[in-house]
Amino acid sequence: MNKTLRNIANTIVANLANTEPAGLFDGKMGICLFLYKYSRYSGFEIYDEIASNLLDEIFDQLTPGMSSSAMDGLAGIGFGLVELLKDGFLESDPDDNILKNMDDILLRGVRNTLMREAPFSITLYSSGIYLLSRMSFRRNEMESEWIVDVIGQAIWLIEDFKKRTQKVPELSLLNSMLYVFARLFAILETDKNKIQCILMDILHFSSLSIQQHNYNEIDILLFRQNVEYLSEVLDIEKFPIIGVLREMTNYSEEVNMDMLYNNMWWWLLYDLYPIENISSELIENYVDKKLRASYYDELAVNSKLAALGCWIMSRNGCK
């Protein structure tokens, strides 16, 4: 796999000029994560230097009006920064907290973040996603009001769902909420009843969303994995909706290399493991094929290969 990862890294570096967005899924933050990780994995410092320069470009691109989404905006960039800080790629002086701007925008105005995402084709609960990430780094620096607001705004959002009887929320949004609140239920000692009620409402609306085919195939796969995680932290088998949901989602496709390649950032964002029993030889052959086609698919070079490379290194035990 070392040769495969080296080829991914060199292809990405050779095509950096094609990468203009700053975000996680389709931009510089995702590539930055890969290059830092690959520098440590390979021992070649040049990739660390390239990643550092790329990070400077990301900071230069941050503007108050940019997307707040975890996919292509501030929450995804914040997620990436937390990963780099946790893994020791960056140092953070408490007096010069590089996460402060993210905290202020995403965690002090959760409803504003939701409203800014609403017009996009894929809406996520990005403040909650960032909150979970942020809780994994210097949690003692966090303000309790941030958690209260993320919970409170979810309740407000669910009440809004109930009023809009003609429009069922997309499964992508519900998935992101399920991810956030299943993990908050596991982490927090307080607000258990509130969070459980939120989770039950999310599951109810998920069933409606699936019935109305308001999803992409990846949404079903992620939903199944999020439900399995929830079953580990909460006794959900007693709820009738669980049996119904499992019946509704047991038809989805098995994960294959095309599915991994096109959607890996989702699994990395949600800290889920898509597949374990795939052979290294199959991965290597698939990546070689994609690298040969990369001249015709710049988007793949800019994002998908970086995500796949991060996953390959995680399979090999590299942080």
From TrEMBL:
UniProt name for this protein: Lanthionine synthetase
Biological source species: Bacteroides faecalis
Species lineage: Bacteria, Pseudomonadati, Bacteroidota, Bacteroidia, Bacteroidales
